[in-house]
Each structure stands twice: as structure tokens, then as C-alpha cells.
Backbone:
């Protein structure tokens, strides 16, 4: 078929910065002990699962969802303790909210600034939206380099700053005073990304009342709802009213709204699961620290970053033994020989530690 458009190809049409990207890679995980994606390993109590099954059976999936997700938002507000005057915007996962924020401020030349290593989607979404990305290196122990960050903010005048609190993939919680200095020095919005809030000892939600340019983003993915895809952004209604215009009208479906509303009415169950995960994190940390040649980094999240010689071979050794974790070796210079393991059940943790020790022994 010949037409005026017959010469068009992906390489001639697609933006060069998109062609240069690698798609976010999700490896197959069937049959593995899955400790690669920070999921909650626990199922819900059977009675609650039965109740959800009945609700799903009766759900009006022939209808569009409530575009304002009023009921779900009310449940989120009730479990989140927002300061007065603050509200929430919902996303299909918090990934989508990062994109909404970037789309909103992506004037020509606008900068999105974060620290490195951190969550890779900040940089990817900067590319999606035509923003210029600036990554300020963390120090060797993965704390904020406050002076370097303040210098970069002064130099680059970022429209948007993302700080993951706790940070992924390093697991640590940045110094709160340093984060405040960054918020105060920023000419644009600062988003504190609290994806791992359920496992952390601090939050910036109370600070929303003190800083006009602060927004706090959370997700329910790590709290047992990864499959529902639900994140939210908390902040003043003045900011949210603008951002709402970019949210696609039905971004949170009927079933996620229904099921998440139900689960948030049983928030205590989810928090108890998070408490078990924190206990297991302590056990896993001792297990890792007891292995010669392994350096584990402190974590306030539901995963632990560790360094071990020949990390890629160790990662493969773990896979051969049926355990899937995340290989970060080669991804960023600061993460050479680094692997990241999600905190699962005590049984999964024990299987992982044995497989790790065996893989190390085999290479010795
Ligand atoms: N922020 C951080 C720091 C993350 O680690 C993740 C997930 N890995 C997300 C946001 C996105 O989570 P979701 O889209 O599942 O809400």
C-alpha cells in the first residue's frame, strides 16, 4: 500500500529521547519466591476475602467508576490524618501521579530534580514529558549531600523536586532537617514520596501545613494493594485543583475503588501485616549481617539493599535456587555489586538467607 505516510517508521517519527529509553523491565517471576518488587507477602483473612468476592460480584462494572472517587477519598482521608485545608488526588498507582505533576509544570526548559540513586521513574517521566532531569549524587552512605543539593537547586531552579522518604533503592530515611532546608530553598514544588511510609518512623504529612510548596505522595502498593494500582497525592486544594485537570477522568476503576474502600475500613489488618514485615526486616538484617562478605544497609522500608562481591553471579545463583530479588549491579555507579531484597514472610526470609549463603559458598 502506498500513501504519503508510507515512509514513516518508528525511528523517523518517535521522539529521539523516547527512542533512547529502555522500557521499565519487569522480569517473569512464576515459580519463584518473589522478593523483587516490595510487595506485601500476606493474604487477607478468609472472611474478608469472601466479603470482597461478594462485593465484586455485585459491582456495576458496566458503569464508569465514580470519577471523583468520593467514598474512597473519604476513607483515605480518615486513615491519613491530613492537616486541615488539605485534600488528596488519586492516581492509578503513584507512578501516574509523578506523570501528572511533570505534565503540569513541563514548560520548555523546566527542570525535574532528584537525588541519585533513587526511584528510576522520576528520570523516565522527565523524559516522557520533555523536562530536563538533574540528579544530585547522594553521599557514599546514601545520605543527602545537602550542600550539593542546595547548590544544584540554586543553579537549576527546578520546577519539581522529588525526594523518596524512605529512599528506593537504598532504604534509608533522609535527615528530616535536610529535607526541610531543601523545601525552603526550592523555587518550585517539592514532592516527598512516601511510598514506604507504612514501614518508616517519620512522615512529612504534618509538614504540609507549614510549607506552601510541599506535596506528599503515597501509594497503597506496599501495604498489600499492589494489584489494585492506587496512589495518592496529599496537599493544599489550591495545588490539587490545578493538577486534577490533568488526571484522566476514570483513572481509578470501579473494582479498585470498591476493594480499596473495603480494605481501608480494615486498616488495622494492613497495619498488623506491616508490623510483621518490620519484625521480619529486623530478622533479615541480622541474617544478612551474619554472612561474611555481605554489607547490608539500614532500612526503614520493606526491603534491604546489600552489597556483595560478584553480585550478578550471586543474583543468578539465587534464581537457580528459586529466589528472585532485584539486581542493581550496573544500573548506577553508586550501586556496583548491590542487590535489593524485599522483606517477605519469615519462611521466605529463611529460604533466601540459605540460598544466599549457598550461592556465596559456591563462588568462593
Ligand atoms: N515511589 C517509589 C519511591 C517507589 O519505589 C515506587 C514503586 N517501586 C513508586 C513510587 C510507585 O509505586 P506505585 O506506582 O505502585 O504506586
Residues:
Amino acid at each position: 500500500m502506498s500513501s504519503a505516510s508510507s515512509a514513516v517508521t518508528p525511528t523517523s517519527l518517535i521522539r529521539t529521547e523516547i527512542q533512547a529509553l529502555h522500557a521499565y523491565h519487569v522480569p517473569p517471576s512464576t515459580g519463584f519466591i518473589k522478593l523483587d518488587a516490595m510487595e506485601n507477602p500476606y493474604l487477607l483473612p478468609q472472611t474478608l476475602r469472601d466479603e470482597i468476592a461478594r462485593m465484586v460480584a455485585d459491582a456495576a462494572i458496566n458503569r464508569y467508576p465514580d470519577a471523583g472517587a468520593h467514598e474512597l477519598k473519604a476513607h483515605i482521608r480518615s486513615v491519613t490524618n491530613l492537616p486541615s485545608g488539605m485534600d488528596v488526588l488519586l492516581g492509578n498507582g503513584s507512578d501516574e501521579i509523578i506523570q501528572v505533576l511533570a505534565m503540569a509544570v513541563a514548560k520548555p526548559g523546566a527542570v525535574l530534580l532528584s537525588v541519585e540513586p533513587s526511584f528510576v521513574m522520576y528520570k523516565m517521566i522527565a523524559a516522557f514529558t520533555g523536562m530536563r532531569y538533574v540528579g544530585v549524587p547522594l553521599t557514599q552512605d546514601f545520605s543527602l549531600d545537602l550542600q550539593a543539593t542546595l547548590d544544584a537547586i540554586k543553579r537549576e531552579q527546578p520546577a519539581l523536586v522529588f525526594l523518596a522518604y524512605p529512599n528506593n533503592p537504598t532504604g534509608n530515611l533522609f535527615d528530616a532537617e535536610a529535607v526541610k532546608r531543601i523545601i525552603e530553598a526550592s523555587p518550585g514544588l517539592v514532592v516527598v514520596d512516601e511510598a514506604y511510609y507504612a514501614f518508616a518512623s517519620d512522615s512529612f504529612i504534618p509538614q504540609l501545613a507549614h510549607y506552601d510548596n510541599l506535596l506528599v505522595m503515597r501509594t497503597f502498593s506496599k501495604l498489600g494493594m499492589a494489584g489494585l494500582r492506587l496512589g495518592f497525592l496529599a496537599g493544599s486544594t489550591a495545588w490539587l485543583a490545578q493538577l486534577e485537570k490533568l488526571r484522566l477522568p476514570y483513572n481509578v476503576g470501579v473494582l479498585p475503588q470498591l476493594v480499596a474502600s473495603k480494605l481501608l475500613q480494615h486498616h488495622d489488618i494492613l497495619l498488623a501485616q506491616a508490623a510483621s514485615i518490620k519484625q521480619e526486616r529486623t530478622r533479615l538484617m541480622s541474617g544478612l549481617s551474619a554472612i561474611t562478605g555481605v554489607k547490608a544497609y539500614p532500612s526503614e522500608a520493606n526491603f534491604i539493599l546489600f552489597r556483595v562481591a560478584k553480585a550478578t553471579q550471586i543474583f543468578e545463583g539465587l534464581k537457580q535456587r528459586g529466589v528472585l530479588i532485584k539486581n542493581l549491579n550496573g544500573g548506577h555507579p553508586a550501586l556496583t555489586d548491590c542487590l535489593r531484597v524485599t522483606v517477605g514472610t519469615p519462611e521466605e526470609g529463611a529460604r533466601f538467607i540459605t540460598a544466599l549463603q549457598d550461592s556465596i559458598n559456591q563462588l568462593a
